Amino acid sequence: MGPFKLKKLKLGCNFTYLHLNTQIKMNLNGIKNIIFDLGGVILNIDYQLTENAFKDLGMQNFDEVYSQQKQSGLFDHFETGKLSSKEFIQQIKSEANLLVDDQEIVDAWNAMLLDLPKERIALLNKLKEKHITFLLSNTNEIHFKAFCKIVEKETGQASLSPFFNEVFYSHEIQLRKPEKEAFNHILLKYDLQPSETLFIDDSPQHIASAKEMGIITYYLQKGEDILDLF
User: Fold this and answer.
1) How far apart are CA 114 and CA 174, in angstroms?
2) At the N or C end, where does the chain have fewer CB atoms within 10 A?
3) What pLDDT, on a 0 to 100 scale, did the predictor assign at position 1?
4) Cβ-count burial of 64 within 10 angstroms (0-12 exposed, 13-18 middle, 19+ buried)?
5) What are the Cα distances from residue 156, in Å, to 4, 114, 119, 152?
């Protein structure tokens, strides 16, 4: 085994982290607030499972209308509460000409939702003791109901609300990342300073938007885990 490589990287606003092999430890000096993404950061997800499920139903172009990086207006509208679950399902079936039951659409849509490691919940509780913590998630009514069941199974809580100072779901606040208004919704409500606020997300377009606003960001890439950050 070769020697450990210790590298110090500057992320702006005097925010640094240490990279020791794959172990990353953050220096939270000056950070009072932390905003977390949900899917891929706290809750394990796999977009490919939903893509495969829809293709099995006959929607062969699903990857062209929905992915982690981009999506069509139909999904934007669903994630910002402009469409009900029933309307979303009917539009999917109509646009893709799918002759399937509504529950098959729901099951395919939820296929990406995996597990919620208890160790991450423990970390959230620990961070909440010294920081103001938030959840900012692009989600929708169907996913919300599904991941709340996962949360209850793993924690005994009916939702993620007890683990943050406040949770913000796109379909409820009618704003979604990477829109700057979504970040401003939290900053203004709690009178937060961007330079004192850390945002952790696994989508580069969301990170770029927050960074433009002066928010300290960490782009959680594939293979990384928030358990290694703190």
Assistant:
1) 25
2) N
3) 39
4) exposed
5) 40, 17, 15, 4
* 3 in any annotated domain: no
Residues spanned by the domain of 97: 47-110
Specify the number of domains making up the chain.
2
* DSSP string of 40-104, one letter each residue: TTTB-B-HHHHHHHHHHHT-TTHHHHB-SS-B-HHHHHHHTTSS-HHHHHHHHHHHHT----HHH
Q: Is 147 helix (H, G, I), strand (E, B) or coil?
A: helix
Tokens of 196: 């004192």
Q: How far apart are the first and last CA of the chain?
A: 25
Over the stretch 136-187, which tens digit does the pLDDT of each residue have?
Answer: 999 999 999 999 999 999 999 999 999 999 999 999 999 999 999 999 999 9
How many CB atoms neighbour CB 13 within 10 A? 15
- Yes or no: say if 151 and 121 are a contact pair by the CB < 8 Å rule: no
Overall average pLDDT of the 107-124 stretch: 98
CATH code, 84: 1.10.150.240
Q: What is the CATH number of the domain that holds 38?
A: 3.40.50.1000
Tokens of 101: 């039951």
Torsion angle (degrees, nearest 10) of CA 32, 154, 152, 50: 90
